[in-house]
Amino acid sequence: MPPSMSLTAQVLARNTNVPIFYAASRAASSFWGKVPMGPPDVILGITEAYKKDKHPKKVNLGVGAYRDDEGKPFILPSVRKAEELIYSKCMNHEYAPIAGEAVYTKAVAELAFGQCSLALKEKTNCTVQTLSGTGALRLGLEFITKHYEQVKEVWFPTPTWGNHPQICNTLKLPHKKYRYYDPKTHGFNLQGACEDICSMPEGSIILLHACAHNPTGVDPKKEEWQTLSKIIKEKKLLPFFDMAYQGFATGNVDNDAYAVRLFEKEGHQLMLAQSFAKNMGLYGERVGALTFLCGDPDTAANMMSQLKIMIRTMYSNPSINGSRLVTEILTSPELKKEWLEDVKLMADRIITMRKRLRSGIEKHGNKNNWKHITDQIGMFCYTGLKPNEVERLTKEFHIYLTKDGRISVAGISSNNVDYIAEAMHKVTSK
Ligand code: PLA
């Protein structure tokens, strides 16, 4: 309401049909009138568009969310059992400690670093529960802005998960890119990565996807990790591992922790973000962890005190339901065994879908090379589809994916694989 209007005129305008020019000026008089409309999220925005689509054959290959072979969200049988166990214990709903329950942080750190980890044995790690992987990244990067004394510059692989640079932007933390993916070979560009790492200022932060790289599905081989570890050490960089898919690369959580464990053994003071969204199907529970390997127990204790101050002023303490589920599974040998089988089942179904998608496209006589669909690992396939082909897939076939041509293979099922293969063939052959 324009403040210049008389009180009577204002009341009248409110009680009758408000003329258009008043409606326009309503925004100007709001406390928030200058807030501009922001763009939809490049990944989660796709789910919003997908939900609005009424086409019966629509497919969502945007977000990395595992589906069973009927295309339905999958509740892991081991998680279901953990839920029942927790329910039967009639647990209370008291606050968790600021950093999360110690039994949880111990179990998740052990899952990442292994039972023989020296850092865990000597208590030189500092681990806190976080709001899933994103919360761990945010907290870790924010900690850098406040307490890191070296070069505050973060290096991301090209390409990387879209939210990585966005978090840095929010924190006004400078970030740059190093070469990672080679579009010609559809593989890892070891030479390019090494050259770029050698040019990074000493002390800067290098973000590494621990396994099942998002979006490319391309991981360094073991020997390549060894080379990376060596030069990262020489350059005195701080490695920050993002491990959002432990178990999804090879179907085995220990194999997938290879890089993290190698770096620990080689004496890196690394940072690690963990998520249980994917490997336990706990997307909405928002359960994860942030670990620093600090070099000595006193520094670890100081770091913990500062992390607690940051958490206390942000969300006070973490939620308890998701972490109880994770703890129940990781601390019971029988449940853990079942969970490892569940992880393998998910990883195997994705591999089967890769094979069927590739053979489905090739069956149509498509002239392009689709070997990378089965070569790449983890949840995603970086198809190489061009923006106009992606657009056609969505507009003509109601198949939703990110603009860079990434598809979540976990969203493909026996019911839609032939439809997707045919559509991909059609948009790439005309
Ligand atoms: N790190 C990477 C590399 C990720 O791909 C994701 C999730 C996360 C962290 C964060 O996951 P969390 O906070 O849910 O634990 N990436 C998804 C979802 C699966 C998303 O974009 O939020 C993706 O579709 O890329």
Structure in a nutshell:
This protein is an alpha/beta fold. The protein has helices at 7-15, 20-29, 44-52, 77-88, 102-113, 118-121, 132-147, 163-171, 190-198, 222-234, 253-256, 258-265, 297-314, 321-331, 333-363, 371-375, 387-397, 417-428; strands at residues 59-60, 125-131, 154-158, 175-179, 181-182, 187-188, 205-209, 238-243, 271-275, 287-293, 380-382, 399-400, 406-408.
User: Would you count the extended β strands for me?
Assistant: 13
What small ligands are held by the chains? ligand PLA
The total number of structural domains is 2
Principal-axis shape equals globular
Can you tell me the CATH architecture of the largest domain? 3-Layer(aba) Sandwich
Strand order in space, largest sheet: 2-10-9-8-7-3-4
Mean pLDDT: 94
Name the CATH class of the largest domain. Alpha Beta
Quaternary organisation: single chain
What Rg do the Cα atoms give?
24 Å
Question: N-to-C terminal Cα separation, in Å?
Answer: 56 Å
Strand percentage:
5-15%
Roughly what percent helix?
Answer: 40-55%
CATH topology name of the largest domain, in short, is Aspartate Aminotransferase, domain 2
Q: Count of helical segments?
A: 18
- The unreliable regions are none
User: What name goes with the CATH superfamily of the largest domain?
Assistant: Type I PLP-dependent aspartate aminotransferase-like (Major domain)
Structural class: alpha/beta
Largest sheet: 7 strands, mixed
